[in-house]
Amino acid sequence: MAKTTAQTSALLEQYCDQLHPMLEWLAHYGADPQGGVSRLLYTPEWVQAQKALAQYMTKHGLDAFYDQAGNLTGRLIGTAPELPTIATGSHIDTVIMGGKYDGAYGVVAGVLALAYLKEAYGPPKRTLEALSLAEEEGSRFPLTYWGSGNITGKYDVSELPHVQDRDGITLAEAIEQAGFGANSPYTSGRRSLGAYIELHIEQGCVLERSQQQIGVVTGIVGQRRIEVRVTGESNHAGTTPMGWRSDSLACAAEMITAVRRSALAAGDPLVATVGNIQPYPGVSNVIAGETMFTLDIRHLDHILLDQYTEQLRSELAAIADREGMTLFWQENLRAEPVLMNPDMIQELQQICEENSMPSRQMPSGAGHDAQIFGMMCPSAMIFVPSRDGISHNPLEYTAPEELVQGFRVLTQWLYQTAY
Ligand SMILES: [Zn+2]
Known about the structure:
Elements: H1 5-27, H2 44-59, E1 63-66, E2 72-76, E3 86-91, H3 104-121, E4 128-133, H4 146-152, H5 171-177, E5 195-201, H6 206-209, E6 214-220, E7 222-231, E8 235-236, H7 248-266, E9 271-273, E10 277-280, E11 286-287, E12 290-299, H8 302-322, E13 326-335, E14 338-339, H9 342-354, E15 359-364, H10 369-373, E16 379-384, H11 400-418
Parallel strand pairs: 3-4, 3-5, 5-16, 6-15
Antiparallel strand pairs: 1-2, 2-4, 6-14, 6-16, 7-12, 7-13, 8-11, 9-12, 10-12
Helix pairs in contact: 1-3, 1-11, 3-11, 7-8, 9-11
């Protein structure tokens, strides 16, 4: 018999109350004695966490299954199988000494949302899936988005990249030890989806500082990573007068200041960072003949991203020219922005308004599985605040009532789209 509105609301409250305890429960798998959670791909802690989630899915009437990459899916089969599947979820792996929320929040929320919807309304029209993705961070192997990539076809377990972890264990060994891989009893995870929605902590300070509860993500920024080398001349720090020097480090310092100034002038959401600098020979009594520094530049609009990058390159070249030095510029990474689906953005925004939740639309400066799915199907992301903007750290925290708000938005969107 169909439940009354009062009954479904009461039931939703019960599931909201489970959110925080369930995150604490999941954080025991891989709890790091040094602090936080270290749950790296295919380690025993990671396998145990997936198994525990699979049990939970089964207990709540979801059809739980693994794929060869180790992604875990809890499926709620719809009554109209001709309609494309809607998936929600996030990643189960963490960085070393990471927090309890990054990835885990979206996984736990997805499982609870489907369990709630099933109990409250029975089977949906459109099939729903809660995903606990194998790997996103690339913390054990340099394989960011390995989990989602195995679903969309970016990766395939039958062609394992030849990579090793810091102990020299290969991916092939690790995947087999965990019970997955091309020879495991599971099938390939590759499939097409009708939509993907991911609930995630913001990992930044924008929502907290603007006192908003929900961030509706407009897209995941594109990125350029560049290695810059400035070449002058090494010489004696005592005998070379100041006017006759070709000091690459002093020149690089001016360039770094120019990066900051120009990025501030360009305005949000452009960000530009110099995160590493290496002078050669790097000795206190020698003028640095060459200095290398890195540039990380991100923007949601690829045209503006390229424009800024080109302008910066000319500006740095002009500084080098004036100082009589050579500039070497090498682009090492180029990732294009992935925009979230405009209809889904609007639907999420409307849910926030109907529920009087203070919200804003914002880009994501960090990468997420949604950018992999976003290349295959309409995708969206919901952010909740991160205390002090801290993430990838044992201090990562989002208050239970903030976790609940994101969960409500996710659940409502899934209900109105799938039922
Ligand atoms: Zn994450």
